[in-house]
Request: fold
Amino acid sequence: MKAFLMYKERDFDLQASLTANASELTQDLELNTLFQAMSGGDEFLFGIARTAILASMVDAGAIRYRQQILADCLKHPNTVRLLYGLAVEAVERERKVWGWTSARYPESALRRSIEVLRIFLEILKKLRAVALESAGFRSEGFRRLFAMIASELDDAYVGLVDEHLSLLEFRNGILMSAGLGAGNRGVNYVLRKPSDAKPGWTERFQGWLGQVSGRNGSSYVYEIADRDEAGFRALSDLRTQGIAHVAAALAQSTGHILSFFDMLRSELGFYVGCLNLQERLAEKGEPICFPEPLPPEQPILSGRSLYDVCLSLNLEDRVVGNDIAGDGVTLVMITGANRGGKSTFLRTLGLAQLMMQCGMFVPAGEFRANVCRGLFTHFKREEDATMKSGKLDEELGRMSTIVDAIGPNSIVLFNESFGSTNEREGSEIARQVVRGLLEAGMKVYYVTHMFDLSDRFHRERPDTALFLRAERLLDGRRTFRLLEGAPERTSYGRDLYERIFVKTSDSSSTAAVPR
Reply:
């Protein structure tokens, strides 16, 4: 049995290798906030969310397949949580069953497998009941899962399994055959199914005759004395040989069903994480939408009311959303006032891309973008406390690592990169890097205060570049909105200076004046 709730033709791999720059993405986009919101404090769900988002898909069809399943989950959250709870119950109850699973102890392995299968059978019945009542699901993934459960777990199958488990308890002993090999050693041990036919007059007479004479038809009876320990050990060894193959087969069957529940828990865990996140955002009235994933060859980027989901999760109030119209654009240059929301919007674009490519909803009113082959971040870092290298050297080293890993149709997010040196030198380094990436078929989103860099691209690429500027009102207030506009020479750092130092100084002097 397969769930196929994450991929159309394969299982979700919780141990899948993440993108090589997973730690950089997690740090720069503050992904742990997102993972924590999805997990609700559950360590297992945290790992599921991390793997699903950082091992994102690059096929638009696969993304839409997962989106349809998530849409069903948003419409039927209680049913999805019930299914997840049944999968969790199966996995956890199996772990609590005591007994050996090794082939060296077939008797113990058999008893444990029977107990586990009875647990699984109980939960499978509940699973089938949910499947039969879930007519409102429309996605291909759920319809296929429910159809499989309904057809493979019908009443006849459940009754047959229950009957076999009762048989395997061997309440009346076991019937087996064997042969003699070299040195009169037992070989070819085969467990036989007892006959269900009721004995007739002849069979009953032969049975009575066998009891009197010590023979039973063509078979012989051997009784072991109460104190014959060696005899009992030999008999136990014969029983072990007889049930060894059955115990191994039953353990294998148990493992198959356990793997189904384990996979169902993992795959539903992703959607439960999405439900947790959606509930957190709904409490604040934040919008979400299902994005439109497009093939990677054509640069598409447009959205309405895009916002930083991680920032929203850390604030009580709603955050400001922004619009963008960047279809056909390969370079987005973001400039403007200090503390105006530039870095926040850069993170917003990166988060929206990642969430879209793992089949999630996106924090926006509308969003559409081309799928990228890889997402990379180059954000400014704190000074190296060990002083083993300069800040610019460290930035160039990280850029070299990105270049080694990047490929066509990728996206690179730059946040104040190469600003650790003077503007002329930093602008020239950044210009050469960005040009190389654009010529190799990449998309670049760049936040910068370097006017020489942004102005040069503004003059050179009027058709394939989009220039956004953080809005500043005449009185210096920031609206945290990004508007289309040409770069300016100033970032209005003076506003912050006056707000922090001048006003503080004024208030201090006023407080010191006696009345």
